[in-house]
Amino acid sequence: MKPKKSLRSRINLIFLIVWLIIFFMQAIYIAVQYRRAYTDAQAVFENTMSSAHSVLTDKVQISAQLLKGLIDDPNIEKYFQCTDKNQQKQMWQSLVSPIKNAYSITSEQYYALSFDNMCELIDSSSGTTKELIHAAHNAYDFFDGNKENLVFYSTSGTPFTDMYFFSFQQIKTPDPDRIGMKFLGTVVVAGKVNKTEFMRESGLDKKVRLVLRFNGDEETDVELIPGLEEGSNYFYKTQNVDSSNWVLCGSAALSTPISSGLILLIAETIFMSALFLVIQLYIKRNVFSPLYKISDFLNNYSLTKKKSHLNLQNDTEIGIIANKIDEMIERIESLSRHIVQTQQRLYESEIAQKDASLYALQAQLNPHFMYNTLDCICGIANVSGTPQIADVAVALATMLRYSLSGKTIVPLTEEIEIVKNYLSIMEVRHPNFFTAEFNISPDAEELMCPKMLLQPIIENTFKHGFVPRTKNAHIVISANVDTDRLIIILFDNGKGFPKEILFKLLNNFKQLNNSFYLPSNNSTHIGLINIQSRIRLNYGKDYGLNIESEEGKFSKIILNLPIISKDENQDVNSTDVHRSEDLSNLTQN
Hints:
By secondary structure, this protein is an alpha+beta fold. The chain has helices at residues 7-72, 76-81, 85-95, 97-106, 130-146, 195-202, 260-300, 317-362, 367-384, 387-403, 412-429, 442-445, 455-465, 499-511, 526-539, 570-588; strands at residues 110-116, 121-124, 150-154, 163-174, 181-193, 209-214, 217-225, 235-240, 246-252, 409-411, 434-440, 448-450, 473-482, 485-492, 544-550, 554-562. It has 16 helices and 16 strands. The longest helix is centred in the first third of the chain and has 66 residues, at 7-72.
């Protein structure tokens, strides 16, 4: 039965409400502080972007002015039309002299290059490297495809490497042969941006990401400053570069410092959460868990379960309650076991009374009549010259007289004699079929054992072990004393026990516990199970019968009995005499 309302739920709800109040107060304060920090950081980012845009625009404008000076020179067309290489070289040196002067004025390095109408490099200014020429060719392809005079190009994907920008201008002249203009070649002014120097001039840090993008196409991005990884940006801004189709795109994360007071509040929130968690775990472990364990145990308690104790290790009042519950359960289980044992004994007593009544009815036939009849058969057999019939009659009379005697405990020698009488009968039935061997130690001969203990086992051997007939069948019966036990071994070289039957038989032996055996309709080897039951009833579970067998080879039955001498058995025999007299009186009546 579960409670309608849980104490644990109520306490958890109180903890949750207190924690939520503190958490929301801290969250509101943090949100206000964060908003203020966000506004300040956005203003810094705007100023930084403006500064970077201004520096980059100045560099581009200088290159545009240098390019304008080149194309405005009246000798530029003559330069492209000149066919003498040496003269053309001299003309080029004269044309690019303003480029050299620009370095002394701006402290920036600019380069000039010329391409013919087939996009082949003609000349370049001093200091031009192969890397720059390669970049100029790639930039020319971009200029030729997009008709954009300004082209940015990065020499490598590695962060903080140099970036070039190119200003292109085609040189054309009127064509005398046809209406229109004749394309002579292209003049290029290139500038170089050192990214580290650019960051210093613009006041940038490595957390800001700058990209140059053409016509909004991300595939044309030229990375100026790598900044943060994609997906971690909070601010974003774009600005056109010198009235071109290039756009400077900037992004940055919120990285403003948080005040010490805010850090203290965050730490306080974490501390309060941890404190509530520790308190809750302590209460759960020392109060709720023991209570729930007791509750679940009582709800699911059953006498049929193997584990029926709490075993709660707790030093508080809850532990005392649990220990008292365990003591109460032990008393209940003890009384239940006593009731069950009492009912079992009553049931077994009723069965024994019924068996005794049946035995009394079956024994109403006067045994003396049986003895006289067997004696008569024996006399007729001797007169008729058939001694085998006489031997069988004598053996059978001996076994009958032995089985109907009032004693229940007999010397081992008497049991051996009964076995020999039974074997003599079987020899008549199956001549030359088997041999028997007896190895009885002298100190075991006069020890006591239950009556009719061995004959059913030998009979079981003929019934199951030697069927079908076994060649050279052999039986060995041995007995000896081992410390405080009488060990009797019955061995035969028959077909042995099948594994399935042996397993079931041994399992039935284990189930017997000082009680009567009640065979079912499909039970097999009832004689062996009855012997095991008799030994357990008389001597306890420390004694009994065991079987060793290998199918198709042999069977060995080992009886383990206590050592009981004749003197120790006098009281038992006197009780048996009284039972015999009562049985005789019952049969006579």
